[in-house]
UniProtKB/TrEMBL annotation:
Residues 6-191 form the Ketoreductase domain. Keywords: Oxidoreductase. It comes from Spirosoma profusum. This is SDR family oxidoreductase. GO terms for molecular function: oxidoreductase activity, acting on the CH-OH group of donors, NAD or NADP as acceptor.
């Protein structure tokens, strides 16, 4: 599980899986640049890491993943602070769950801008450096619904299918540069993703944010010659 002195960028890191992953990696000695739109929550995360005396460092760079200039700034700041990039974790995303005739065009555009365009823009911003150093690891946090559909999930599953397709094409493009690509497909997670909040009693058997953070740690700490192309993880209570 060695990530000592690795530099990691995580989007959607102000809460949930992204936040837990940032703390987990920093605890194990990685330097983590976290980005999200909520500057206050990012600052609180940065402060928690500092006061918690973790081995690595967390640096907050607020930004919107759907904004190309913001993602370019995240990469620029990372290189200024740590001079290299080892891992990029595309984690930002949210869900809208409605029947198709109830989804507005604005809801469609906004969700696609975060879940799909955001993955593209952060990846694109980091790629020139990763290619130049001929090394790196890009992780795309999708969902098990990148592999299946359900009623009321047309918009969200479409975004996750798009992420899976993007990840697959990216994997083929960058392997000649010695860059790893991993798609992460999780089942039910008790996180802030769900509108009704988290830590509900009915979710006692779901995956926790910390379970996902441990999974991320495992994925990005494999030896140089090992790549996990796809990582599917569910709570035992969930059928798949």
């Amino acid at each position: 599980m060695n990530v000592e002195n690795k530099t990691v960028i995580i989007s959607g890191a102000s809460r949930g899986i992204g936040r837990a992953t940032a703390l987990m990696l920093a605890h194990h000695g990685a330097n983590v640049v976290v980005t999200a739109r909520n500057a206050d929550e990012l600052t609180a995360l940065e402060k928690e890491a500092t006061e918690g005396h973790v081995r690595g460092k967390i640096v907050a760079v607020p930004g919107d993943v759907s904004n190309e200039a913001d993602m370019a700034n995240v990469v620029k700041t990372t290189l200024e602070q740590f001079h290299h990039i080892d891992v990029v974790i595309n984690n930002a995303g949210y869900g809208v769950f409605k029947n198709i005739d109830e989804i507005s065009a604005t809801e469609w555009d906004d969700l696609m801008a975060t879940n799909v365009k955001g993955t593209f823009l952060l990846t694109k911003a980091a790629l020139p450096f990763l290619k130049s150093q001929r090394n790196g690891h890009i992780v795309v946090v999708a969902s098990d619904v990148a592999k299946r559909t359900f009623a009321g999930g047309a918009l969200y599953t479409a975004s996750k299918y798009a992420q899976e397709a993007f990840t697959g094409a990216l994997r083929k493009e960058v392997r000649p540069y010695n860059i790893k690509v991993t798609g992460v497909y999780s089942g039910l997670v008790d996180s802030s993703f769900h509108a009704e909040g988290h830590r509900q009693e009915s979710r006692g058997s779901w995956l926790k944010n910390e379970d996902m953070a441990e999974s991320m740690l495992f994925i990005v700490s494999r030896p140089a010659h090992v790549v996990i192309d796809e990582f599917m993880v569910h709570p035992l209570s969930q059928e798949y």
